[in-house]
Fold:
Amino acid sequence: MYICYNQLSTINYQLLIINYQLSTNMKYILLPGLSPKNKDWAYQLKAEFKTAGLELIVIEWNHWEGEKRNFSISFERENLLRLLKDFDEYTIIAKSVGTRLASTMIEKELLKPVQLILMGIPSQNEVYEKALVKLNPRKIKVIQNTGDPLGKFEEVEKFINKINPDIEIIEGGRNDHSYPYGELILDLIEK
Structure:
């Protein structure tokens, strides 16, 4: 059988990815924003992870399925706890309401991620303060858009620095609540 160098490199690369995935127990879990519009973004991010040889588990909020359902933090918390019971190590990537759910669970010590990436923190309240002090600050990354209408970068930066100045905060260059930063997120996660 004839295999050219390029084919061999591709085969070796694929084997490296498979070996890496088998050697790590790390799971990557996305808690997206509230609106069903976040579903497209979530699955785009999942595709970017797949291209990088990683699996991203997207949590689909229950209220996305029916127009008359409301977001229930207790319902979503229980769903997430059921999912996590089999995982030893996981990274939480959260946007907007997902940051609130993650922080609430961390505060109550129901969630103990190896790493936490927060995007689009929608408010500055004590839930975040109580949660973020429970984790190693070097394992927390915050991405906040310059002009996010739910929390501008400057405001969130001051808030996070008061909690712990060792938490890394990155300014996204947008003036909205969209966070299309797949490449940045992949750079930030611990693999």
About this structure: The mean pLDDT is 87. Helices lie at 5-23, 38-51, 73-84, 97-107, 126-132, 153-163, 182-188.
